[in-house]
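User: Last request for today: this protein with FE2/S2 (inorganic) cluster, please.
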Amino acid sequence: MAPRETAAGAAREDRRAFFTRLFWGLAGLLGALVGVPVLGAFLSPGFRKPEKAQWTVIGPADRFTEEPSLAHHVHPAHEGWVNVTGEMQVWVVRDPQGAYKIFDNHCTHLGCPFHWEAADKRFFCPCHNGVFGADGRVLSGPPPRPLDYYESKIEGGILYMGALRRGGT
Ligand code: FES
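Assistant: Here's the final one, the structure of the complex with FE2/S2 (inorganic) cluster:
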């Protein structure tokens, strides 16, 4: 083979190798440009700081007994740029050990409000006959889990409610 042809073949090989490296380099760069934000979107919730509970006054703690009673509270909410407040209801129970449970007033089946039936010592949801105990457990009917509840704390004799928790957790 003539030296001129060998040099041309080597140049062609170099060019091919250069374009192959360029192709894979650009493909890698494009993959990183698309992949890093997508991966970040999937992983970021795991690194997000948990929201601080906003504590809301329910009332004097000694007002509540082992007999569930309805309490009203003003619930602050944020919708976009607008701050909205609405009056909401919760059921408050003090258990025999003296711990307070604050139940959200919506059934865990389809969200109907329920009420306390003192004679039968049970919470009853009239929508589909869901029945819960005073401790929030499902006793019968379609509700898939115990009543949702709010975190609670007492300071200076006042009962506060915090973040909403899923029933059974
Ligand atoms: S919504 Fe309460 S039982 Fe269905």
